[in-house]
Write a structure and sequence with these properties.
The protein is mainly alpha-helical and 78 residues long. It is 71% helix and 0% strand. It contains 4 helices and no strands. It is elongated and about 65 Å long.
């Protein structure tokens, strides 16, 4: 058995409170734990940020960029 008797009783009580079978509760708990894990390591994320920071991209004042974006939306609607 994967769980000892005391652990299984505890799991069964938790599952019953949620209206689930133990196996369904365990599946949901495993899925939630898997979703909580990051897709990539922090080192990979930092490497991507550092790589992007080495580039020079055209930019403008944020208010001007937002106005240009909004202008694009309104001209497409016409």
């Amino acid at each position: 058995m994967v769980f000892d008797d005391a652990e299984y009783r505890q799991l069964r009580r938790v599952a019953e409170r949620k209206g689930l079978s133990v196996s369904e509760w365990v599946r949901q708990a495993i899925r939630a734990a898997a979703r909580a894990q990051p897709a990539t390591s922090k080192e990979a994320k930092l490497a991507a940020i550092r790589s992007a920071a080495r580039h020079r991209f055209p930019t403008a004042d944020i208010d001007r960029m937002l106005a240009e974006i909004e202008q694009g939306y309104t001209s497409e609607a016409e």
